[in-house]
Amino acid sequence: MLEKCLKAVYENATFPISVCVVDNGSDKEKRNTNIHLFQPPDNPNIRFETKRLENSEGYPRTHNEGAKLLSSPIICFMDDDIQIVPGFFEEIIKIMGDRNIGVCGAKLLFPEDSTNPHRPGGKVQHIGLALDVTANAVHPLVGWSPDNIKTRKSRETLAVTGALLVIRRDIFRDCGGFDTIYGHGYWEDLDLCLKVRQKGYKILVDCNLTAYHYTGATGEMNPNHNSDFRKNRDIFRTKWGNSGLLVYDSWTYG
After folding, report:
1. What are 17's strand-pairing partners?
2. Are 231 and 188 in contact (CB under 8 A)?
3. Does residue 222 carry a pLDDT above 70?
């Protein structure tokens, strides 16, 4: 998946960008087998950096470490199970031209060739994160057609998934990055988006920004997935419960 992800990034680097690949404590034998993924690409538009963490440090710290290695004014965090489409980076530049936007997310689709009924091929996986009536984070309209009028609407949203999250570097720094209290991950993306919102910036999902997302490829390998999710949900609710920012809004997508 990482190879497909990087191939798409390199093919779409039509102007100078910086790419950092962080190895989050991968198995050394697998890393050696795939060492080519940690070598600079043959593309003059790309400044390439890589960092290896000896132990699995989880999403928040891994992404914070990667951000430290680069200096570009806009950061695009991207999981290894993402594949962008042509025009992706050009669209980011247009979107982030609005200084009122602090974070932007994309319309993410399940891979076209997916045969998994839980990942219906070519259908919507993400057009923003919302809260249901029990304050659980949900993906509204998951499984809908990407051509439906409701899934083609760019909108402000509570949060966007960290699987593909675009943010201004100065805002990311001022917010302290991803909070490492969330350990191996889950809910840290909502946490960051709320910190950005507190500073007066918009959280946007732009449906002209599109990519494919397998969804949960790394999480599936975590035997503690369910317990980590519940623990981090409780951390998030404790931290933000009295902020006034947790609003039942999933109904607005219907």
Report:
1. 46
2. no
3. no
Q: Which residues contact 116 (CB under 8 A, 6 or more apart)?
A: none
Could you report the per-residue pLDDT of 168-221, keeping only the tens digit for each? 999 999 999 999 999 989 999 999 999 999 999 999 999 999 999 999 766 556
Which positions ≥6 away from 127 have C-beta within 8 Å? 107, 108, 139, 140, 141, 151, 155, 157, 205, 207, 253
- DSSP letter string over 142-154? TT--TTSTTTS--
227 token code pair: 């317990």
User: What angle (nearest 5°) sits at the alpha carbon of residue 128, between those of residues 116 and 182?
Assistant: 85
**Total Cβ atoms within 10 A of residue 32:** 9
Length of the chain in residues, anyone? 254
**Residue range 136-153, pLDDT digits in tens:** 999 999 999 999 999 999
Which domains, from first to last, does the chain contain?
A: 72-253 (3.90.550.60)
Here the tokens at position 240 are 């933000």
Q: Which amino acid is at 171?
A: I
The most distant pair of C-alpha atoms in the chain lies apart, rounded to whole Å, by 50
Q: What angle do CA 16, 2, 159 make, to 5 degrees?
A: 75
Q: What is the DSSP letter of 98?
A: S
pTM of full prediction above 0.90: yes
Residue for token pair 């923003």: 128
Q: What are phi and psi of 192, to 5 degrees?
A: -60, -45
- Evaluate whether 162 touches 210 at the Cβ level (below 8 Å): no
